[in-house]
From TrEMBL:
Its EC number is 5.3.1.1. This is Triosephosphate isomerase. It comes from Donghicola mangrovi. The gene is tpiA. GO terms for molecular function: triose-phosphate isomerase activity. It comes from the Bacteria. The keyword Cytoplasm applies. InterPro entries: Aldolase_TIM (IPR013785), TIM_sf (IPR035990), TrioseP_Isoase_bac/euk (IPR022896), Triosephosphate_isomerase (IPR000652), Triosephosphate_isomerase_AS (IPR020861).
Length: 249
């Protein structure tokens, strides 16, 4: 059985006062039957980790550099995230792929860095609308997964998030049939590459406009083991409703 995961990606949102939302979560979820992850901006990881200590909420980064240290102004290494109290890191989010020109090869190098630092990598994939309209979604996802996952990926060190780019922050979501098609496909690709045992342990999250009103339906979908949530993770009340839907699924 894969343990379910509700992951929140705060993106470039959140000043110190946002920690009150996290505090609300840590009070509500001192313990939980699912994994809970909040990825605040890097500036808050240290404080967020302290605030979440002893609760069911884990803290993660949103990106890392493939190297451990060096002359890379403005970048953050996986080891630094770990040192700040993070246990996870999001890798290859479409906003990194698109805004920063990140290739799948670079993302694989970042995932390796995450593993080396003892972090769980949440590796993202997803198609643009033009790719979906061209009927190329599955080959595109297959290529992203093949190139973004290192051979060292395991059920313990890797989570995959499928996030159609056109669904992120837009309020649009794929049909549950479309989500199931991609998640089932990813599972099959993982089995072909890593074998049943490893592949069946890797959690697959759906991401893109997940909110309290659609969470239950999405969580009932084949091979969906949780969600990566952007906007609706910023408010504890909304994210709690999503966590509760996951617990009930
Ligand atoms: P959204 O973002 O929930 O605001 O659509 C999801 C994500 O980008 O991880």
């Amino acid at each position: 059985m894969r343990r379910k995961l509700a992951a929140g990606n705060w993106k470039m949102n959140g000043l110190a006062e946002a920690l009150s939302e996290l505090n609300e979560l840590t009070v509500t979820y001192g313990e939980a039957p699912v994994d809970i992850l909040i990825c605040p901006p890097a500036t808050l990881i240290d404080r967020a980790s302290e605030a979440a200590e002893g609760s069911a909420v884990a803290i993660g980064g949103q990106d890392c550099h493939p190297k451990t240290s060096g002359a890379h102004t403005g970048d953050i290494s996986a080891e630094m995230l770990r040192d700040s109290g993070a246990s996870h890191v999001i890798i290859g989010h479409s906003e990194r792929r698109d805004d920063h020109g990140e290739s799948s090869a670079l993302i694989a190098a970042k995932a390796t860095a995450a593993y080396d630092a003892g972090l769980i990598a949440v590796v993202c994939c997803g198609e643009h609308l033009s790719t979906r309209e061209a009927g190329e979604t599955l080959p595109h996802i297959g290529k992203q997964i093949a190139e973004s996952l290192p051979d060292a990926a395991t059920a313990e060190n890797t989570v995959i998030a499928y996030e159609p780019v056109w669904a992120i922050g837009t309020g649009l979501t794929p049909t549950v049939e479309q989500i199931a098609e991609v998640h089932d496909f990813i599972r099959a690709e993982l089995i072909a590459r890593f074998g049943e045992t490893t592949a069946n342990g890797i959690r697959l999250l759906y991401g893109g406009s997940v909110k309290p009103s659609n969470a239950a339906e999405i969580f009932a979908t084949s091979n969906v083991d949780g969600a990566l949530v952007g906007g609706a993770s910023l408010k504890a009340a909304d994210f709690s409703a999503i966590i509760d839907a996951l617990v009930a699924a």
